[in-house]
Specification:
two-stranded antiparallel ribbon; 5 strands; globular
Length: 181
Amino acid sequence: MINGLNVEKITETVEVIQDNESLRDVHVQAKSIWKSGGLSETYVRRGSDEQAIKVCSDMLPLQGAPDLSSKCGAACPTELVLAALSSCLMIGITCHASLRGIHIKSLEIETKGKFDIGGFLGMDAKRNGYENLKLICNIDADASEAELSEIFEHVKATSPVLDVIVNKLDNVSTNLHASQR
């Protein structure tokens, strides 16, 4: 165990996936159910797991004048994107440091971004999503700055969440199922 991770198990998993390409595809589903106002409940399911993980999601509550604060103290979806990115980078750094035998004493990742809410509200905007992101990694570990920088660069280059944020998807299919009343 290094940094709380079973390095043997990680190495074994990598070898199994290398031997069986079909295991590389991870299917993820998310379903949000509107509750009231800007409040929704979101469930995430990975693979064929019957058990969905519930995530409280609070969209922008636009009742009267725009109030960008959260009613239930939950993050809004655009904030959850940054949280997902920080978590993904954290997992990647911890995993790759552990595989190299590097012991982490402390690790903090901060993600910052700016977006124009006007686009979401139907106004002209340069872009509807984040215009820029800043990733700040503070790490204390038993490795040189060069080694840690190499790991950080590798993790950024291989992060599925960062990839989704910075690269355009080739295919987004949509379906609308509307009930008439």
